[in-house]
Amino acid sequence: MGASEAALQIFSGAFAPQFHTNLRSKFSSVCCVKSSKDRHYGCMQQNGVRILKSYIQRQRIRLESLRCKCSQAENIRGAFLEDGSGRLVNGLANDSKFQLGQHLKYEKGNLFSDDGLTAATSNVFGANSIEDEAWSLLRASMVYYCGNPVGTIAANDPSDSNTLNYDQVFIRDFIPSGIAFLLKGDYEIVRNFILHTLQLQSWEKTMDCHSPGQGLMPASFKVRTVPLDGDEDATEEVLDPDFGEAAIGRVAPVDSGLWWIILLRAYGKCSGDTSVQERIDVQTGIKMILKLCLADGFDMFPTLLVTDGSCMIDRRMGIHGHPLEIQALFYSALLCAREMLAPEEASADLIRALNNRLVAMSFHIREYYWIDMKKLNEIYRYKTEEYSFDAVNKFNIYPDQIPPWLVEWMPNRGGYLIGNLQPAHMDFRFFSLGNLWAIISSLATTDQSHAILDFIEAKWSDLVAGMPLKICYPALEGEEWRIITGSDPKNTPWSYHNGGSWPTLLWQLTVASIKMKRPDIAENAIKVAERRIATDKWPEYYDTKGARFVGKQARLFQTWSIAGYLVAKLLIANPNAANILVNVEDAELVNAFSFALTANPRRKRLRKGPKQTFII
Ligand code: GLC
């Protein structure tokens, strides 16, 4: 296939997955070209050969959201300079000098640009509340590609010269930003984000000559302005994704595609615009993610098998195997995808596999991940080495696995889903995001969901403490820390991922408590956050058991801390809006679940069942 034909296929949105394989090797970037001589835009091949402009013209209508809109961008800039109305960064970011908002500095309550211009201050925007300040900061974090907003950078911390990859748009970090924009009626940035990250899905991604599955979405991407080969006056903007091949620890972001599906559904539900999810390329994108997640492997469980660090906790913390966070997001993404997939003959097998997986997963998680006082006592009294189909202790769990801290910590009321590696290899730590998303997605039963919230209330001083919400509890200490984290100096006990407190989790707590009609829990947590979050300059995380210190290496002006707070406030003000994120429990799943609970395992082995069966 010639390069120009390939471009046609890519942009037509009608490509079949196998084309990606061919195309991926030919293209490493699709970019927007900007020349000071003659303003023109086009697509570039890896070697810098410009694909004929006519192809772009022919595809203009289809490309609508992916092409560069130079004149529009000019207008945006003009608009800011004239009215300074809070669309400020739109304008600045269109200028290459202000790419990614990197040149906006926050000092003494004011946002400054490089040339000393006060870009945004509390007063300029009439900020008289924490919320106003948060909105100014969120807008200042917007990232533009060819003049159009496509995401928000992870952090805009002027005090830190070593940005690492915090100047990138992280998929998971953008979710609260995207939801905040949606709830504000600002749909464009979310639409652009969805479509541009979709383009990145088909990128060539290799590490040491090995490529992961095609459906993988990047952890993050960056808009780079680079000189155009052969034209010294011209620059081009390039979307540069990181699939983990550059990320610290080289971890594959399994959660990215799952979040992408969740955001896509939220976009449709909030904006009413279902045309995005109906697009052929978007449908293909959903299917590619599902195929990757539903692919057969060696695994005996319906849960998704992943490596350590494949989610929000993106470095070694001993959560390889079947960690709860990924399972909850996976379950949610399956339900969201089922709602959006066009009913067509070709998808019938995929939908069947998806339905089987949902049933098996809900049974598996509700049964084997759940822990409360009663269950703990059951495990404590387990007999071991049982050999029979009716074994109570199916996974031969030794009661000595129960960690001493849990015996003291478990309240009489409440319970939670443990961070399991797999049923027989229990990780009893409490992981907030997985538990909250299990409520939101209805992966947990209604009773379990209430019990999780009861648990958070009972353990308020540990989990909410001085700043909501602890990422996990308790911290790994001593020898455990040394072996499991590999002596990671960033993940020392009660810091960062290892028992640190992350303000961004406030929005997920809010959605979960609104879903269970207990918004007071979120309201109380928001009050705790409001005591310090703005004066502390919106840190990424807090350290110590009681969340007393701003984290040792925490970034300030961390965008998802800002956006998480905004989403929490917006949802408390309009609880119905939480429905764009919530999955209500599916009646068919409940039936299938109760059947699975009562089924005799022996009979089940003999019965002819669906092709795909899992151990549940
Ligand atoms: C840290 C977090 C990760 C986040 C990234 C950017 O690595 O663990 O979840 O996406 O920072 O904020």
Question: What does this molecule look like?
Answer:
With 616 residues, the chain is an alpha+beta fold. The chain is 43% helix and 10% strand. The protein has 25 helices and 15 strands. The protein has helices at residues 3-12, 17-26, 53-58, 60-63, 70-83, 88-94, 130-140, 171-183, 188-201, 254-271, 275-278, 280-294, 324-340, 348-368, 373-380, 404-409, 432-440, 446-458, 460-463, 478-485, 506-515, 519-530, 559-573, 587-598, 601-606, and strands at residues 31-35, 105-107, 110-112, 118-121, 142-145, 148-152, 169-170, 220-228, 231-242, 370-372, 415-417, 430-431, 472-473, 542-543, 549-550. A four-stranded antiparallel sheet has the order 1-9-8-7. Strands 2-3-4 form a three-stranded antiparallel sheet. The chain has a two-stranded antiparallel sheet with strand order 5-6. The longest helix is centred in the middle third of the chain and has 21 residues, at 348-368. Residues 1-30, 34-127 and 600-609 have low confidence and may be disordered. Alpha-D-glucopyranose binds next to helix 8. InterPro entries: 6-hairpin_glycosidase_sf (IPR008928), 6hp_glycosidase-like_sf (IPR012341), Glyco_hydro_100 (IPR024746). It comes from Abeliophyllum distichum. Pfam families: Glyco_hydro_100. Invertase that cleaves sucrose into glucose and fructose. Belongs to the glycosyl hydrolase 100 family.
